[in-house]
Specification:
The chain is α+β, with helices and mostly antiparallel strands. Helix content is 23%, strand content 34%. It is elongated.
Length: 301
């Protein structure tokens, strides 16, 4: 009887030992799930939330030195916006170029650090039927992922997808399964379910090339007199001579000229023409630090 009890105790002890020694079970994701997880983990650090005046959108770092691609309607007429990274840090983002027709805007954050960034896909990486992934901040919920397929490529190159896109997703990336940016999310069809649109990465690349090759345009005679260099597309002041009239009246690099004498500025040539008329008084409406300011100037001839 005693021997039998000893054998049972020994067997019970071995079973307990064996149960403790068993390795923990690991959960196996499907191949499709693993692709989604990998795309999200790789792309998320490069996605930002952008806050303007009463607006919230998304954007993507597209270079390590802080260039961000987003929608024109996210930044509007602002020259500066707040950029928030996924780890909660905040930066000032200067609007350096916009393309209203294709709803694109290019920002640069004020920082010397290097940022994670997304690569733009080539045409071969943008095909109807492929799986797509949208990351953004719908309704302010930063880091939200939705998935779907690329449903259609419109004649103008715009991408149509059934991945859920909501307010706050605007400007965020639409990605392929390699984690490349194939589009910039921009709109949904109001009376349609599961119909969203993005500006193609091919259009975005053309926009970036135009910005890179576009010289900033100083107004000629008046520019030398005022001492300013102005971006010909965004009307943002790029540089100011320290002893110039522009410096004396308080203009700064980064100021965006919105109107001259209460007339909205549509072309930099309009500003040149007004200045070359040698007016005695001029009123400039500018955007600075998310605020609209009016500067009245008395000009000595």
């Amino acid at each position: 009887m005693v021997g039998t009890m000893q054998r049972l105790l020994t067997i019970g002890f071995l079973a307990a030992t064996l149960s403790v020694a068993l390795p923990p079970r690991t959960f196996a994701f499907t191949s499709d799930e693993q692709i989604t997880i990998n795309v999200y983990k790789a792309a998320l650090p490069a996605v930002v939330t952008i806050r303007g005046i009463g607006t919230t959108g998304s954007g993507s770092f597209i270079s390590a030195d802080g260039l961000i691609l987003t929608n024109e309607h996210v930044v509007g007429r602002l020259s500066q916006v707040e950029v928030r990274t996924q780890d909660g840090r905040r930066f000032i983002g200067d609007v350096i170029a916009t393309d209203r027709r294709n709803d694109l805007a290019l920002l640069r954050v004020r920082s010397n650090e290097k940022f994670p960034f997304l690569r733009l896909a080539e045409a071969s990486g943008i095909q109807v039927g492929q799986r797509v992934f949208a990351i953004g901040a719908p309704f302010g919920l930063a880091g939200t992922l939705t998935t779907g397929i690329l449903s259609r490529i419109a004649p103008n190159g715009d991408l149509q997808t059934d991945a859920a896109i909501n307010p706050g997703n605007s400007g965020g990336p639409l990605l392929n399964s390699r984690g490349e940016l194939i589009g910039v999310n921009k709109a949904i069809m109001g009376n349609g379910q599961g119909i969203g649109f993005a500006t193609s990465a091919l259009t975005a690349r053309n926009f970036l090339n135009q910005v890179a090759n576009r010289p900033t345009t100083p107004p000629e005679k008046s520019g030398r007199r005022w001492g300013i260099t102005i971006d010909a597309q965004t009307f943002t002041i790029q540089a100011i001579n320290p002893s110039s009239l522009a410096s004396r009246i308080g203009l700064r690099p980064g100021d965006k000229i919105l109107a001259v004498n209460n007339q909205p500025l549509r072309d930099v040539q309009e500003l040149i023409e007004v200045l070359e008329q040698n007016p005695k008084v001029i009123v400039l409406t500018i955007a600075r630090d998310r605020r609209i300011r009016m500067i009245g100037v008395e000009i000595e001839n």
